[in-house]
Amino acid sequence: MGAVSSCCESCFRSRRSQQYEPLLLENEREAVADLLQYLENRTTTNFFQGSPLTALTTLSFSDNVDLQRSAALAFAEITEKEVRPVGRDTLDPILFLLSSQDTEVQRAASAALGNLAVNTDNKLLIVKLGGLEPLIRQMLSPNVEVQCNAVGCVTNLATHDDNKTKIAKSGALVPLTRLARSKDMRVQRNATGALLNMTHSDENRQQLVNAGAIPVLVSLLNSMDTDVQYYCTTALSNIAVDGANRKKLAQNESKLVTSLVALMDSPSLKVQCQAALALRNLASDEKYQLEIVKADGLTSLLRLLQSTYLPLILSSAACVRNVSIHPQNESPIIESGFLQPLINLLSFKDNEEVQCHAISTLRNLAASSEKNKTAIVKAGAVQSIKELVLEVPMNVQSEMTACVAVLALSDELKGQLLEMGICEVLIPLTNSPSSEVQGNSAAALGNLSSKDGRTASDDYSAFNDVWEKPDGGMHRYLYNFLTSVDATFQHIAVWTIVQLLESGDPQLISNIRLSGLLNPSIRQLALSRTPSATSSVGTPRSHRSQSQSYADTDAGDGQGEIQLLARRILEFVDGDTDGGLPRSVAGSHMAGSSVSSARDEELRRSVREAFSSGSHH
Q: Which residue windows does the record flag with biased composition (Polar residues) (predicted)?
């Protein structure tokens, strides 16, 4: 927050005509004369050093209240015109004036100090010299002008991180909270601005909550003043970062969401933006995710999402992403018309964060419902991903490939996705510098290769088309994963090969059987029980997901499962078959193994669940 202007029109009126008490000390008479002369030449005079400062200091420390008023008014006017870093020799007389019992002196001195507190160096020195104590006393003044200037000064001081904790511990928060309810709009603005400046650290937020600030801030969301709305909305957004505070808000502030939803329609863009951000932070919790939809927050969020103003797009996209985490919100979001705007934002190259929020929301919306997956594909999401994914930043690639992996879980959609040529972009990404992009891309390919209830009409030609290209095709990708030091990647590779063999596609089966690249690695995995490093990547993961991550599916024996799958592949590759399913998959025991068909099915289901564990985040 910037400078808070003084409430008084600080000006030093020449007192030539005023008859001072005849008992003025000689040095005071000289100081008055000197000051009047300096003020006549104020444009060329530096009042912060030398004789001008000496004259002001003499009048400040005088026992004569009239002289103190003159000095305070002069300081206020001078600092209104010019602010620079000052030393103790300037601040000491102003701080002395701040402790005066005279209201006019207090008002002008606090205005001068508030003006100087715009400068970074001065902020620190004012607090170091003990400026908080007299400012707190003045905040308790019955005079509104004094309150206003004192609070404004504290607001400026609170913009420096080194001062925040000192202010929080000084006892200033309780009077600030009380003054936030002031009937004087200037005092209210300054007080809420100061409270906002105190919400940027965990410790200070807690002090603020303890001072009773939350109900005051919530009630002032309904203020008619745009600045007050902005300060309170932003302060509550910061407070809502903490889980304990969200719980407190949920228990005690039943009108909070309704007020914030209303503020998304404020005439002020900055208020709209902060309201959406506050709702985003609240929507970290399930209760608020549901409540925002119930309060018709989607209508305003959709409008903000389609704005041309980046901060509004970013704040609303972040909010919708969090709201979409709840399964019950998937269909309402889709039915409210969000799909096309979200897909449009995938190509929002001006801001990577917007792209991430948009694709993550689409992935969340696809998590629980076949109907929603179909709607997302029909709206053109996969086509957009295919066109963009090789060019977008790595974080966006990770989210896009995770989204495809979730969509590819649908047996009804696999054929469409393969026809779109999605494998052509997934295969190069299995060799990404990012292990997360690699894993998500491989998970998507694995999900596309598997199908419950296969039929003779299933078309696997798309995998033949990409067997050797691009970038070495499926062939090279599977080899890279089979020879990876990461057991998770090995697991994905052998599981995917099993799916391809189960397809019954003669060309695919021939490609695998005749591969001099794959078979040596498969034989090695079939024999080896040497532990490999495991990774948590390879599955589109989720903050909400209650299912396993890929690395969790091994039940402590992931290498054993890799060995079983590798042996299953070899039984087929080495077996005397005519292109049908290998015997082990058809239900008989695996050669050399006591694992039954039930165990086979359990193993397949375990890995399939690993691929399907990407839900909401």
A: 529-551
Q: Which residue type, as a one-letter code, is found at position 180?
A: A
Distance CA 573, CA 179 (A): 80
Eight-class DSSP state of 611:
H
In single-letter form, the type of residue at position 563 comes to Q
Report the C-alpha gap between 213 and 499 in whole angstroms: 60
d(CA 491, CA 554): 9
With a cut of 80, say whether residue 461 has pLDDT above it. Answer: yes
* Sign (positive or negative) of CA dihedral 279, 335, 412, 370: positive
According to DSSP, residue 128 is labeled: H
pLDDT above 80: residue 12:
no
Distance CA 342, CA 377 (A): 13
Is the separation of the CB atoms in 502 and 456 below 8 Å?
Answer: no
Do residues 282 and 248 make contact, with C-beta atoms less than 8 angstroms apart?
no
Integer CA distances (angstroms), 240 to 179, 360, 449, 555, in order = 22, 22, 44, 38
56 burial level (CB within 10 Å; 0-12, 13-18, 19+): buried
Q: How far apart are CA 25 and CA 32, in angstroms?
A: 11
pLDDT score at 595 = 29
3-state secondary structure of 68: helix
CA dihedral defined by 473, 388, 318, 304, rounded to 10 degrees?
-160
Q: How many CB atoms lie within 10 A of CB 63?
A: 9
Q: Are 74 and 45 in contact (CB under 8 A)?
A: no
Report the sign of the C-alpha dihedral through residues 240, 395, 540, 564, in that order: negative
Q: Rounded CA gap, 585 and 588, in Å?
A: 7
- What DSSP string runs through 296-336? THHHHHHHHHT-S-HHHHHHHHHHHHHHTTSGGGHHHHHHT
Q: Are 6 and 80 in contact (CB under 8 A)?
A: yes
CA distance 586 to 596: 11
Question: What mean pLDDT do residues 34-47 have?
Answer: 77
Cβ-based neighbours of 40, under 8 Å, separated by 6 or more: none
DSSP H stretches of helix in 142-184: 144-157, 161-169, 173-179
- Cα 186 to Cα 191, 487, 571: the distances in Å are 9, 64, 82
Q: How far apart, in whole angstroms, are the C-alpha atoms of residue 72 and residue 112? A: 8
Contacts 24+ apart (CB under 8 A), 498-501: 498/565, 498/568, 498/569, 498/585, 498/604, 499/446, 499/449, 499/450, 499/451, 500/449, 500/460, 500/463, 501/569, 501/572, 501/582
Q: Can you tell me the distance from the alpha carbon of 162 to that of 488, in angstroms, rounded to the nearest whole number?
A: 47
Digit-coded pLDDT (tens) for 347-404: 999 999 999 999 999 999 999 899 999 999 999 999 999 999 999 999 999 999 999 9
Angstrom distance (rounded) from CA 154 to CA 159: 9
Q: H-helix or E-strand containing 399?
A: helix 394-407
Token duo for residue 192: 């809420």
